[in-house]
Amino acid sequence: MNADTILVVDDEPDIRQVLEEILVDENYSVFTAGNANMARQLLREHRVDLVLLDIWMPDTDGITLLKEWTEQGAGPQVVIISGHGNVETAVDAVRFGAYDFLEKPLSTAKLLVTVDRALQDLRLTRENQRLRRRLEPASTLIGTSTVIAEIRQQLQQVAKTDSWVLITGEPGSGKGVVARCLHNASARSGAPFIDVSLAAIPDENIGIELFGSAEGGMVQPGRFEEANRGTLFLDEIGDLDLAIQAKILSALEQGRFIRIGGGQAVDIDVRIIAATNQDIDAAVANGAFREDLYYRINVIPIKVPPLRDHREDIPDLVAFYVNWMVEREQLPYRRFTTGALNILRNYQWPGNVRELKNLIQRLLIFNQGAEIDREEAEWALNRNEDNAVDALGSSLFKLPLREARDQFEKHYLNHHLEQSSGNISELANRIGIERTHLYRKLKGYGIKPKPGKTDAGG
Question: In CATH, what class is 5-133?
Answer without folding.
Answer: alpha beta
